[in-house]
């Protein structure tokens, strides 16, 4: 087989969830498949250290351009010129016209469930518009749709009225470098990012689904009343966006309790997770929730949501809250901060969750799908 994998963003410097999932899928396919020929299509190579070429895995840089043009024109042309048997698009969208058999990884359909066209950054709004145009056109053309949780599988099937067997769940996994960091590694990370000895960690972005507004609404009464909560660390947030939200909530008084670090590279995250008192992840909607497992693998207790995919991923190893209720979030934070026994219980339970989600098994399932699609 000649297989193309769309991995447009994996070499950008600031990699995020879908980028890391694509990287790990490719790495594990390289381990198990020495026979078929793969072309990995990327946009540019700012930081190409994450993937290396092998004898049967070739990296192809297509002309740099805005994503819709890159995908609809350059990727479609490459599928034809490289005579692909299969094209696997890994990040929700795909060329509308594709000469190869198409497999689509559809991480979520959040952008189809609500308009939210005036929420998030300009870049996020444009991305949602493109997905709203593209995904309904390609779902019917894809020979197989892969998604990342049973929750999302059911959402996709219901939304598009797809028959059983068209959508497959292939769970994400946890990269092996996510493990408890030593005291020395933690101290270096705290010094590098100017962090206190005790802190809460919140990972998200300006996408409304990440629930930054709800988190700030939960923190406001807790901090203003002097409850025993340490500072909260928020990587990858801009000060202007944060201050705007604080002003909307009349919560500028708690600004001094919030530490902004800027972007933290994936390799530094284990030491940050390991240093945190607990990890706060009360997202409104996720298709998987990879940071939940990353935190657990590092021995960090987790608070997450009782909605969407998060209970499926966290199991009984996290404290679950109603993400739409700031008081529920606030109470959970205080309870976890005051109860060292509960933190240790969640910490130990958390170690048992990541082994259930394995990239190698996922790669084996994906290779099996390639073979199945190629025969039919």
- Determine and state the CATH class of the largest domain: Alpha Beta
Q: Percent of residues in beta strands? A: 5-15%
Strand order of the biggest β-sheet: 3-2-1-4-5-6-7
Task: Count helical runs.
Answer: 14
SSE layout and pairing:
Layout: E1 2-6, H1 17-32, E2 37-42, E3 57-61, H2 67-81, E4 86-89, E5 101-105, H3 110-113, H4 122-139, E6 144-147, H5 150-160, E7 167-169, H6 183-192, E8 200-202, H7 212-224, E9 232-234, H8 239-248, E10 258-260, H9 269-275, E11 278-281, H10 290-297, E12 302-305, H11 310-314, E13 319-321, H12 326-338, H13 340-350, H14 359-375
What this model shows, in words?
InterPro entries: Glyco_trans_1, Glyco_trans_4-like_N. By secondary structure, the chain is an alpha/beta fold. It has two domains: 2-173 and 358-375, Rossmann fold; 183-356, Glycogen Phosphorylase B (Rossmann fold, 3-Layer(aba) Sandwich), CATH 3.40.50.2000. It has helices spanning 17-32, 67-81, 110-113, 122-139, 150-160, 183-192, 212-224, 239-248, 269-275, 290-297, 310-314, 326-338, 340-350, 359-375, and strands at residues 2-6, 37-42, 57-61, 86-89, 101-105, 144-147, 167-169, 200-202, 232-234, 258-260, 278-281, 302-305, 319-321. Strands 3-2-1-4-5-6-7 form a seven-stranded parallel β-sheet, with helices on both faces. Helix 1 (17-32) packs across helix 14 (359-375), helix 6 (183-192) packs across helix 9 and helix 7 (212-224) packs across helix 12. The longest helix is centred in the middle third of the chain and has 18 residues, at 122-139. It is globular. The two termini are 13 Å apart.
